[in-house]
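Slide 14.
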Amino acid sequence: MPRPARVLLRLLAVVLVALLGTANVSPARASTDVDDGRRSDACRGRVALTFDDGPVRESTRRLLRVLRRNDVPATFFMVGQRVAADPRTARAVERAGHLVANHSWAHHDMSRQSYRDVRRSLRATRRAMERAGLHPTDLMRPPYGALARPARRAIRDAGYVPVLWTDDSLDWKSGSSRRVARRILAGLHPGRNIVLQHDGVNRSPRSVGAVDRVVRVAKRRGYCFTALDERGRPGFPTPTLSTIATDGIEGGEALVTLTLAGPAGRATALTVEAASGTAVVGTDLPAFRTRVEIPAGTLEATLRIPLGTDAVLESPEAFTLRLHEPHGLALAQPSVQVRLLDAATAPRTVLPGPPYLSLGRGPKFS
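Slide 15: predicted structure.
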């Protein structure tokens, strides 16, 4: 490669290090008080806040503001009819980084329903969620916590995990916000706690008003806040990350798309490192090793890698991106190969995304 092109690649690499060193990472909705949903020696116990019967625009959106202010995650067990009636509020829940789960279509008592009716209710609710653009978990909560044998079999056959609770706020029944908070705090114990509250009943404003005090006092007592893992326990899901690379063209950029299989309920991260193949790191592309964070509420990140150019007609070259040090996710593959096509032989391609100047920018995330 001619000397000017090498100088350009060195400049790209230097600026890349500067950019990544000062990157503004979007805050995770999951509490930073716990690093691992399964185990944390610093925690007296784990607390998973769960909210039933929404979404209801006013109370649900107010609750989202409270959770954001306190930097804690939650799991929302939604009623299908209400998702269909207010998909924008339902989407706001997931985009805020929280998990969404199934609470039936019309909140009927499943212990009185047939196998077929339960399956139909779960299916209709999931369909409404997917139409709203949600990515629901495989968790469900039966209305009133009531189940009979046909319902249990229907839930299992539909692939759902039923989740009840350990700490009932009784927010639907009586009490001011302060009284609801006292009930919840009195029910916490070392180990795993699943708190039941509601964002979709008449008394929900009082329940939402209790959250600030619950979080503040529970944290002071040494509790950590989590979402629910795949088995319905206080913790976090561990979605699989898949990686797809698009061929790059000399003088252009290569695109690498990182996609989570489902929501994680917190920020996830991994380290991405460029390794030479027939394309040489530091010559054909900038050298980099960086930490990529996918914020809670986001399922995808795109890495754009600027590529050098030369005046030599060559066969396609390739380099490798090594993926390691995952946090909150599982890697579908440890590496991905990216091809670099010679500009003279590459087909004409319109790359997605906004154009930007390669000079001085290095790989960036979108």
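Speaker note: Confidence is low (pLDDT under 50) at residues 1-40, 349-365.
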